[in-house]
Protein backbone atom coordinates (compact mmCIF):
# COMPACT_ATOMS: atom_id res chain seq x y z
CA UNK A 1 0.00 0.00 0.00
CA UNK A 2 1.28 3.47 -0.91
CA UNK A 3 1.97 5.87 1.94
CA UNK A 4 -0.38 8.45 0.46
CA UNK A 5 -3.19 5.89 0.35
CA UNK A 6 -2.53 4.81 3.94
CA UNK A 7 -2.46 8.44 5.08
CA UNK A 8 -5.83 8.93 3.40
CA UNK A 9 -7.24 5.93 5.25
CA UNK A 10 -6.07 7.41 8.55
CA UNK A 11 -7.63 10.76 7.67
CA UNK A 12 -10.88 9.06 6.70
CA UNK A 13 -10.88 7.07 9.95
CA UNK A 14 -10.61 10.24 12.06
CA UNK A 15 -13.27 11.98 9.97
CA UNK A 16 -15.58 9.02 10.49
CA UNK A 17 -14.95 9.10 14.25
CA UNK A 18 -16.08 12.72 14.50
CA UNK A 19 -18.87 12.33 11.94
CA UNK A 20 -20.38 9.44 13.90
CA UNK A 21 -19.76 11.13 17.22
CA UNK A 22 -22.32 9.43 19.45
CA UNK A 23 -21.64 5.95 18.14
CA UNK A 24 -17.91 6.55 18.55
CA UNK A 25 -18.45 7.69 22.13
CA UNK A 26 -20.61 4.62 22.80
CA UNK A 27 -17.93 2.31 21.41
CA UNK A 28 -15.13 4.01 23.35
CA UNK A 29 -17.21 3.87 26.54
CA UNK A 30 -17.87 0.16 26.09
CA UNK A 31 -14.17 -0.50 25.54
CA UNK A 32 -13.18 1.67 28.52
CA UNK A 33 -15.64 0.08 30.95
CA UNK A 34 -14.79 -3.45 29.85
CA UNK A 35 -11.03 -2.89 30.03
CA UNK A 36 -11.45 -1.18 33.40
CA UNK A 37 -12.94 -4.44 34.71
CA UNK A 38 -10.27 -6.54 33.03
CA UNK A 39 -7.43 -4.34 34.30
CA UNK A 40 -8.85 -4.09 37.82
CA UNK A 41 -9.44 -7.80 38.29
CA UNK A 42 -6.12 -8.69 36.68
CA UNK A 43 -4.32 -6.30 39.04
CA UNK A 44 -6.20 -7.66 42.07
CA UNK A 45 -5.55 -11.29 41.19
CA UNK A 46 -1.87 -10.73 40.41
CA UNK A 47 -1.42 -9.02 43.78
CA UNK A 48 -3.33 -11.80 45.55
CA UNK A 49 -0.91 -14.22 43.88
CA UNK A 50 2.01 -12.07 45.07
CA UNK A 51 0.72 -12.01 48.65
CA UNK A 52 0.09 -15.76 48.48
CA UNK A 53 3.71 -16.29 47.43
CA UNK A 54 4.85 -14.07 50.31
CA UNK A 55 2.81 -16.17 52.73
CA UNK A 56 4.30 -19.36 51.29
CA UNK A 57 7.83 -18.05 51.55
CA UNK A 58 7.18 -16.91 55.12
CA UNK A 59 6.55 -20.51 56.20
CA UNK A 60 9.75 -21.93 57.68
CA UNK A 61 10.90 -24.93 59.69
CA UNK A 62 11.98 -24.18 63.26
CA UNK A 63 14.24 -26.79 64.84
CA UNK A 64 14.59 -26.48 68.64
CA UNK A 65 17.94 -27.62 70.03
CA UNK A 66 18.09 -29.90 73.05
CA UNK A 67 19.54 -28.30 76.21
CA UNK A 68 22.10 -31.10 76.39
CA UNK A 69 23.77 -29.92 73.17
CA UNK A 70 27.06 -28.08 73.74
CA UNK A 71 28.43 -25.59 71.15
CA UNK A 72 30.25 -28.36 69.27
CA UNK A 73 27.09 -30.47 69.11
CA UNK A 74 25.14 -27.45 67.86
CA UNK A 75 27.64 -26.92 65.03
CA UNK A 76 27.41 -30.58 64.10
CA UNK A 77 23.63 -30.37 64.07
CA UNK A 78 23.78 -27.25 61.89
CA UNK A 79 25.95 -29.09 59.34
CA UNK A 80 23.53 -32.01 59.29
CA UNK A 81 20.57 -29.65 58.78
CA UNK A 82 22.34 -27.87 55.93
CA UNK A 83 22.79 -31.23 54.19
CA UNK A 84 19.06 -31.97 54.16
CA UNK A 85 17.68 -31.86 50.63
CA UNK A 86 15.78 -28.68 49.67
CA UNK A 87 17.17 -26.58 52.55
CA UNK A 88 17.98 -23.17 51.08
CA UNK A 89 19.24 -21.31 54.16
CA UNK A 90 19.60 -21.76 57.91
CA UNK A 91 19.62 -19.14 60.66
CA UNK A 92 20.41 -19.49 64.37
CA UNK A 93 17.95 -17.97 66.86
CA UNK A 94 18.96 -17.95 70.53
CA UNK A 95 16.44 -18.53 73.29
CA UNK A 96 16.74 -14.84 74.22
CA UNK A 97 15.80 -13.86 70.66
CA UNK A 98 12.88 -16.29 70.81
CA UNK A 99 11.73 -14.63 74.02
CA UNK A 100 12.02 -11.17 72.45
CA UNK A 101 9.70 -12.33 69.64
CA UNK A 102 7.15 -13.53 72.17
CA UNK A 103 7.35 -10.25 74.09
CA UNK A 104 6.89 -8.31 70.84
CA UNK A 105 3.81 -10.36 69.96
CA UNK A 106 2.12 -10.83 73.33
CA UNK A 107 3.31 -8.01 75.60
CA UNK A 108 5.94 -7.08 78.14
CA UNK A 109 4.42 -9.23 80.88
CA UNK A 110 6.62 -12.03 79.51
CA UNK A 111 9.71 -10.08 80.62
CA UNK A 112 9.68 -12.02 83.88
CA UNK A 113 10.97 -15.06 81.96
CA UNK A 114 14.20 -13.25 81.06
CA UNK A 115 17.69 -14.36 82.04
CA UNK A 116 18.07 -17.71 83.81
CA UNK A 117 14.27 -18.04 84.03
CA UNK A 118 13.98 -18.32 80.25
CA UNK A 119 12.36 -21.72 79.56
CA UNK A 120 12.77 -21.54 75.77
CA UNK A 121 15.25 -23.36 73.53
CA UNK A 122 17.85 -22.17 71.06
CA UNK A 123 16.66 -22.88 67.55
CA UNK A 124 17.69 -23.17 63.94
CA UNK A 125 15.29 -21.63 61.41
CA UNK A 126 15.33 -23.39 58.05
CA UNK A 127 14.02 -21.93 54.79
CA UNK A 128 13.31 -24.38 51.99
CA UNK A 129 13.83 -24.06 48.24
CA UNK A 130 10.08 -24.58 47.75
CA UNK A 131 7.28 -24.03 50.31
CA UNK A 132 5.86 -27.49 49.63
CA UNK A 133 9.11 -29.04 50.89
CA UNK A 134 8.70 -27.80 54.48
CA UNK A 135 6.95 -30.98 55.66
CA UNK A 136 9.66 -33.29 54.28
CA UNK A 137 12.42 -31.10 55.72
CA UNK A 138 10.69 -31.03 59.12
CA UNK A 139 10.39 -34.83 59.17
CA UNK A 140 14.08 -35.24 58.29
CA UNK A 141 15.17 -32.75 60.97
CA UNK A 142 13.03 -34.32 63.69
CA UNK A 143 14.96 -37.61 63.40
CA UNK A 144 18.31 -36.00 64.19
CA UNK A 145 20.18 -36.12 67.49
CA UNK A 146 19.89 -33.11 69.84
CA UNK A 147 16.60 -32.03 68.23
CA UNK A 148 13.94 -31.67 70.92
CA UNK A 149 11.10 -30.32 68.75
CA UNK A 150 10.35 -29.28 65.17
CA UNK A 151 7.67 -26.81 64.11
CA UNK A 152 6.53 -25.84 60.62
CA UNK A 153 2.79 -25.32 60.96
CA UNK A 154 1.78 -28.95 60.43
CA UNK A 155 -1.74 -29.40 59.09
CA UNK A 156 -2.22 -25.61 59.09
CA UNK A 157 0.67 -25.13 56.65
CA UNK A 158 -0.55 -27.99 54.44
CA UNK A 159 -4.02 -26.42 54.36
CA UNK A 160 -2.47 -23.05 53.56
CA UNK A 161 -0.65 -24.43 50.52
CA UNK A 162 -3.84 -26.10 49.26
CA UNK A 163 -5.80 -22.86 49.69
CA UNK A 164 -3.16 -20.84 47.86
CA UNK A 165 -3.16 -23.32 44.96
CA UNK A 166 -6.96 -23.05 44.78
CA UNK A 167 -6.82 -19.23 44.78
CA UNK A 168 -4.34 -19.24 41.91
CA UNK A 169 -6.48 -21.63 39.86
CA UNK A 170 -9.64 -19.60 40.45
CA UNK A 171 -7.77 -16.40 39.64
CA UNK A 172 -6.55 -17.78 36.31
CA UNK A 173 -10.08 -18.89 35.39
CA UNK A 174 -11.48 -15.45 36.28
CA UNK A 175 -8.88 -13.64 34.16
CA UNK A 176 -9.55 -15.88 31.14
CA UNK A 177 -13.31 -15.42 31.63
CA UNK A 178 -12.95 -11.62 31.80
CA UNK A 179 -10.86 -11.57 28.63
CA UNK A 180 -13.53 -13.59 26.80
CA UNK A 181 -16.22 -11.23 28.11
CA UNK A 182 -14.14 -8.27 26.93
CA UNK A 183 -13.84 -9.75 23.44
CA UNK A 184 -17.59 -10.41 23.31
CA UNK A 185 -18.74 -7.00 24.60
CA UNK A 186 -16.29 -4.88 22.61
CA UNK A 187 -16.82 -6.83 19.38
CA UNK A 188 -20.59 -6.58 19.65
CA UNK A 189 -20.46 -2.86 20.38
CA UNK A 190 -18.29 -2.26 17.33
CA UNK A 191 -20.57 -4.53 15.30
CA UNK A 192 -23.50 -2.26 16.15
CA UNK A 193 -21.43 0.71 15.01
CA UNK A 194 -20.63 -0.99 11.69
CA UNK A 195 -24.26 -2.03 11.19
CA UNK A 196 -25.42 1.56 11.60
CA UNK A 197 -23.14 2.50 8.69
CA UNK A 198 -24.09 -0.34 6.36
CA UNK A 199 -25.50 2.11 3.83
CA UNK A 200 -22.15 3.91 3.65
CA UNK A 201 -20.39 0.62 2.94
CA UNK A 202 -22.91 -0.39 0.27
CA UNK A 203 -22.49 2.97 -1.51
CA UNK A 204 -18.71 2.52 -1.55
CA UNK A 205 -19.13 -0.93 -3.08
CA UNK A 206 -21.56 0.39 -5.71
CA UNK A 207 -19.06 2.98 -6.92
CA UNK A 208 -16.50 0.22 -7.43
CA UNK A 209 -14.31 0.47 -4.31
CA UNK A 210 -12.32 -2.67 -3.55
CA UNK A 211 -12.97 -4.55 -0.33
CA UNK A 212 -9.49 -3.75 0.98
CA UNK A 213 -10.03 -0.04 0.29
CA UNK A 214 -13.32 -0.14 2.24
CA UNK A 215 -11.92 -2.27 5.05
CA UNK A 216 -8.80 -0.26 5.95
CA UNK A 217 -10.50 2.92 7.26
CA UNK A 218 -12.78 0.80 9.47
CA UNK A 219 -9.81 -1.24 10.74
CA UNK A 220 -7.91 1.93 11.65
CA UNK A 221 -11.01 3.48 13.17
CA UNK A 222 -11.55 0.38 15.31
CA UNK A 223 -7.91 0.46 16.43
CA UNK A 224 -8.26 4.13 17.41
CA UNK A 225 -11.46 3.38 19.35
CA UNK A 226 -9.66 0.54 21.13
CA UNK A 227 -6.64 2.72 21.90
CA UNK A 228 -8.67 5.61 23.32
CA UNK A 229 -10.89 3.18 25.19
CA UNK A 230 -7.78 1.61 26.77
CA UNK A 231 -6.02 4.87 27.65
CA UNK A 232 -8.92 6.10 29.82
CA UNK A 233 -9.06 3.17 32.29
CA UNK A 234 -5.28 2.78 32.08
CA UNK A 235 -4.74 6.33 33.34
CA UNK A 236 -7.31 5.83 36.11
CA UNK A 237 -5.77 2.54 37.26
CA UNK A 238 -2.22 3.95 37.27
CA UNK A 239 -3.12 6.75 39.69
CA UNK A 240 -5.37 4.48 41.79
CA UNK A 241 -2.77 1.74 42.11
CA UNK A 242 0.00 4.15 43.08
CA UNK A 243 -2.26 5.55 45.81
CA UNK A 244 -3.14 2.07 47.10
CA UNK A 245 0.52 1.02 46.99
CA UNK A 246 1.61 4.02 49.05
CA UNK A 247 -1.17 3.49 51.63
CA UNK A 248 -0.52 -0.25 51.92
CA UNK A 249 3.17 0.42 52.53
CA UNK A 250 2.30 1.96 55.91
CA UNK A 251 0.27 -1.07 56.99
CA UNK A 252 2.67 -3.72 55.68
CA UNK A 253 5.86 -2.01 56.87
CA UNK A 254 8.05 -4.35 58.88
CA UNK A 255 6.47 -7.49 57.42
CA UNK A 256 7.57 -9.83 54.64
CA UNK A 257 4.43 -9.01 52.67
CA UNK A 258 3.85 -6.35 50.05
CA UNK A 259 2.05 -5.47 46.84
CA UNK A 260 3.70 -5.63 43.44
CA UNK A 261 5.87 -2.56 42.91
CA UNK A 262 4.29 -0.04 40.47
CA UNK A 263 7.21 -0.43 38.08
CA UNK A 264 7.22 -2.61 36.06
CA UNK A 265 3.77 -3.92 37.14
CA UNK A 266 1.84 -0.89 35.84
CA UNK A 267 3.79 -0.97 32.58
CA UNK A 268 2.77 -4.59 31.96
CA UNK A 269 -0.88 -3.92 32.85
CA UNK A 270 -0.95 -0.82 30.63
CA UNK A 271 0.57 -2.66 27.67
CA UNK A 272 -1.91 -5.51 28.18
CA UNK A 273 -4.90 -3.14 28.18
CA UNK A 274 -3.67 -1.17 25.15
CA UNK A 275 -2.90 -4.38 23.27
CA UNK A 276 -6.33 -5.86 23.98
CA UNK A 277 -8.08 -2.61 23.07
CA UNK A 278 -6.29 -2.13 19.75
CA UNK A 279 -6.50 -5.79 18.75
CA UNK A 280 -10.19 -6.22 19.52
CA UNK A 281 -11.07 -2.81 18.12
CA UNK A 282 -9.26 -3.33 14.82
CA UNK A 283 -10.13 -6.94 14.11
CA UNK A 284 -13.57 -6.57 15.63
CA UNK A 285 -14.29 -3.98 12.95
CA UNK A 286 -12.95 -6.17 10.16
CA UNK A 287 -14.83 -9.24 11.41
CA UNK A 288 -18.09 -7.30 11.85
CA UNK A 289 -18.14 -5.90 8.35
CA UNK A 290 -17.56 -9.17 6.51
CA UNK A 291 -21.25 -9.64 5.78
CA UNK A 292 -21.42 -6.25 4.07
CA UNK A 293 -18.50 -7.04 1.77
CA UNK A 294 -19.91 -10.29 0.38
CA UNK A 295 -20.73 -10.19 -3.30
From TrEMBL:
| Alphabetically ordered keywords of this record | Cell cycle, Cell division, Cell membrane, Membrane, Transmembrane, Transmembrane helix
- Protein's membrane topology: Multi-pass membrane protein
Q: Which Gene3D superfamilies match?
A: 3.30.70.3040
Return one Gene Ontology term, BP aspect: cell division
Where found in the cell?
Cell membrane
Q: Which PANTHER family match?
A: CELL DIVISION PROTEIN FTSX (PTHR47755)
User: Which protein, by its recorded name, is this?
Assistant: Cell division protein FtsX
- Species this chain originates from: Trichococcus pasteurii
